[in-house]
Amino acid sequence: MSSDDNTPLPTSPPRSSPNILITGTPGTGKTTAAGMVADAAGLELVTVGDLIKQRNLHDGYNEEFDTYWLNEDKVVDEMEEMMAGGGMCIDFHTCGFFPERWFDLVVVLRAGTQQVYDRLKSRGYKQNKIEENLDCEIMQVVADEARESYKAEIIMELTSNTIEDMEDNVEKIVAFVNGFRSSHK
Fold it and tell me: Residue 12: its pLDDT value, please?
């Protein structure tokens, strides 16, 4: 759609409830935190990895790393409408392909390498996949991707090593949600 005649392009109505992305290297506690946040704040939870499998939003399977080849365009097309109204809590391990306009808060969870290792090992991850994810966490790949993709003022980087960290993180995110709702009535 173009606007050659200076007619404004349509925009989504303002959201009364925020969209939040919870991202981080696998093993940092995203899925646990996202579920807790969605429950505590009354947001709709979307675990993108599950959505990819359920709706065939991939280009096949990578046997070596025991994962699907992500089709970013299919994911964005599938999620566009659900994101427009707000009130979504999105859980995914990468973030750069999501449109910036979707999110009011991007939470990057970080964890120590021992915590990440233990969590991935307990899930039965292959050793090469564990090593790749540990390298990603050490090199801050997801944090850097968030900084390159979103405005600094909407990024919240939080440590997620312990249950107490997770509970504190949920409180901070819920406080953001409540503040957003109060200011967007």
Answer: 55
